[in-house]
Design brief:
The complex is a heterodimer of chains A (249) and B (272).
Chain A (H helix, E strand, L loop, with lengths): L24 E3 L2 E3 L12 H19 L1 H18 L8 H4 L4 H6 L8 H14 L15 H15 L5 H16 L7 H12 L4 H22 L4 H13 L10
Antiparallel strand pairs in A: 1-2
Helix pairs in contact in A: 1-2, 1-5, 1-6, 1-7, 1-10, 2-7, 5-6, 7-8, 7-9, 8-9
Chain B lengths: L12 H21 L13 H21 L10 H19 L2 H29 L3 H19 L9 E2 L8 H7 L3 H15 L3 H8 E3 L9 E3 L8 H22 L8 H14 L1
Antiparallel strand pairs in B: 2-3
Helix pairs in contact in B: 1-2, 1-10, 2-3, 2-4, 2-9, 3-6, 3-7, 3-9, 4-5, 6-7, 9-10
Amino acid sequence: MAKRESDAPYSFRVNRKEPILEGHTRNRKKLLNPFSSLPYTQTSFTADIFPELLWLALILDRFGYRPGIEIATPFQVALYKISKKRPWYRLSEIAKLSPKQWERMAEPTGPFKEAIMEALAPIALVYPELGMKFLKPAKSDSNEHILRLKNSVRRFSNRFETPGSALIGGFVFLQAFVGRMQVPPDVIGGINSIVSSPGSDEAETASSMVRATMLAMWSADNEDKKEWPKVFWRANLKVSGCDYDRKCE
Amino acid sequence: MTTTENVNDEPSLDKIGNFLDEYVKHVHSRIDLRNGSDVPLDLYYGHVPSVFAGLLARQGTLTIKLALCPPLWDGHVAPMLLRGMVECLVTARWIMLDPLIRAAEYISYGLGQAKLTLSRMQNEIEDEPDPETKERLLSFAQMQESWIVSQRLIQFIDVNLGSWSGMSIRKMCEEIGDVDLYRFWFVPFSTTVHNTWQHVSVCNTKICTNPLHMEHRLSHIASRPMDADIMRMSAKFFDKLVIAFDDFYRLKFHDISAETFFRDGLMEILEE
């Protein structure tokens, strides 16, 4: 696998011939970027998408990338058997699963229930406002659950780093697997390189392809569905206080 | 005592130094108190608390740095810092009137300015003949770019060539309902920043006394006594931002104001 020429992903920009302000247009006292005239809405991965993918991040964090996907796949298949129309890739949708639906859920392509219960226990215990009644985790040390959440958010919420790219790659793979998304074979093939050869040109290409694929699908499917992301980020202030060095310098 | 008394000879410098160290700790403690989970921050719109936290600490930094440099407590340099403090206060209070939009605009302006600098450096680096200088410039540019892209993709950033708020400080003061802040503080302090005649003639010229010279002026660096009132003012501007912050978040902390801490502490030392 070819290594990227530079370890600094953006530094080439200052060396390249194309000026940074190329394509900008002046409007009174502003230089507008070339994309400003396009009709697009901004979606924040961290603020709006990541909280909905937290379930997958916890699974990947708990069991590793490949075993995690092997657990998440039959889980998603089983969910889409309940209804093909519901967006089961969103945590807020999974949270609506009733205990009865969970009990009746078959494990056709492999066991996943125990692993799902273990991985998602922090969500059920730390965010009671979300629901997740089907999980019924035993009461246990909340500090440990909060620590697990903090670790997973820290690891997976940056979409430009390997874990974040793997999370998005996992999401795209699952959507393709359950038939909700048509994805070119080379995108699926490239997902593997994100975790097998992080930092390689192949992995970088695959990462940007899955990011673009996810954002295109997400924006079309989830406009104005930001209730859980807002609850999640706002609740986190009470879940765990600010971490910083308090000493006077 | 009045806080305009000269403090550079008596009492002992040690005592004053220790007191100023305590003042620095007090400012830190006021900031720390507002830096935690007791403040109802809306983390979904994290840019808003981030901007206010930054401006509060900026105001604290300016009063601390001034406190640590008593030789600056005169009309030569301190007004530059005080004007910065007034502007910091106006900025924060103006953003508080429409925080979601204005905090985002404030951040965008900063990112745009950094992008503009980067763009200028791009040409500079290309034309630089000295490899060592080129390397140094490249390293700075890379740092700058990393800082930008850690917050937003560089291609999506507009560059605002005007003022960040789209209006003057005077207009901002009008909107926050505090025109006096502009008239009696911002404008007088600006004379030092811009080196205008009312500052330069007083602080940097001396009239030639030769009657044959028609009172022309000579270069002069005027000696000014250290004025503790300048330091008290900086404490006051810090407090004003703390009050605005507390009002915005409806906080009820009862910590002593920096101005009271400074004034009472200094008075105690002078009375000993």
